[in-house]
Design brief:
Blueprint (H helix, E strand, L loop, with lengths): L4 H20 L1 H5 L8 H23 L8 H24 L2 H4 L1 H18 L5 H21 L10 H27 L2 H27 L3 H4 L2 H26 L4 H6 L4 H13 L5 H18 L6
Helix pairs in contact: 1-11, 1-13, 3-4, 3-9, 3-11, 4-8, 4-9, 6-7, 6-8, 7-14, 8-9, 8-11, 9-11
């Protein structure tokens, strides 16, 4: 028996939540030595590993895309390249609290672009839910970081983080037509592949300028980081993120991005013994209420 449409929508909405949970794990992985590989090179390796894993599945399924859609996938590849380059450079130039701008701004930009590009409706219920989720996120982040340090970062670092937020919102919104024409798997795969030439050039230039020690880049910690980022945070998470777009709006999917720091804090406490205070509970409950409001809006955002 086929599940009713509403049931499929709610099940699909869990996919981007799973993606946010995987991205939350990046906080713990970073403790194991992300700085062993320069940022642009790490970004290239991340997407390359993810693209290979995704393409292997697509090839096994015999999936093909129409030549007329090559341009659309190239656009998505451009969004991927800008996202990865700006996110990793911005992270290197800022501290953890400043990096949290990604979490707060990305859903906001996604909702705005969804309304402007896809004519998605922003209802009172969904707008209230997004606001609640944003407040909850800030409370969780306040328990993790000293948010008074949001100032004092380099303008380039903060600008890169804002650009990364806009670019991921663009990747989400412009991906909707191709996700629904083909599938989440196909769209994630070919967008990753399309981004590789640009990321490869950026990585080559970075390696030529910085000349990092090869031993550090091949250390167990570095290889583990690349494996997690490539297979988990890229192949699995990007597929799950797009999976939600198969049946619900870009704005609805965006609300689940707020869950990333909640998962990161929980994993930090469970695996690294880091303390979480009462704001974690309050913020998590507030965030959950907001996400629930958005995801149960009758017609989506």
């Amino acid at each position: 028996m086929t599940a009713p449409l509403g049931g499929r929508r709610y099940v699909a909405a869990l996919a981007p939540l799973a993606a946010a949970a995987i991205w939350g794990g990046m906080y713990v992985v970073s403790k194991w030595g992300f700085d062993l590989i320069p940022p642009l090179t790490l970004g290239f390796l991340r997407v390359a590993v993810g693209a290979v894993a995704l393409y292997a599945v697509v090839r096994a399924r015999g999936v093909a895309v129409e030549r007329a859609d090559y341009r659309g996938f190239a656009v998505l590849g451009g969004w991927v390249a800008v996202t990865i380059a700006s996110q990793f450079l911005g992270t290197e130039l800022t501290n953890a609290s400043q990096g949290s701008l990604l979490t707060v701004l990305t859903p906001v930009f996604t909702v705005a672009l969804g309304a402007a590009v896809l004519d998605e409706e922003v209802t009172r219920r969904s707008a209230g839910g997004m606001t609640l989720a944003a407040v909850g996120t800030l409370l969780v982040l306040a328990g993790q970081y000293d948010l008074t340090r949001l100032g004092g970062a380099s303008a380039a670092g903060l600008g890169a983080l804002v650009l990364a937020s806009v670019a991921w919102a663009g990747y989400t919104v412009w991906g909707v037509p191709l996700v629904r024409k083909y599938s989440a798997l196909t769209a994630a795969t070919y967008s990753c592949l399309a981004s590789l030439p640009v990321l490869a050039v950026l990585s080559a230039a970075e390696l030529a300028v910085r000349a990092p020690p090869l031993a550090a880049m091949l250390s167990p910690g570095a290889l583990l980081a690349v494996a997690y980022l490539g297979l988990g945070s890229t192949a699995a998470a990007w597929y799950l993120w797009y999976k939600g777009l198969e049946t619900v709006s870009a704005g609805t999917v965006a609300a689940f991005f707020f869950a990333q720091p909640l998962v990161g804090a929980a994993l930090g406490a469970a695996l690294l013994g880091e303390a979480i205070g009462p704001w974690f509970v309050v913020g998590g409950a507030t965030m959950a209420a907001g996400i629930w409001l958005v995801s149960t809006t009758a017609d989506g955002i």
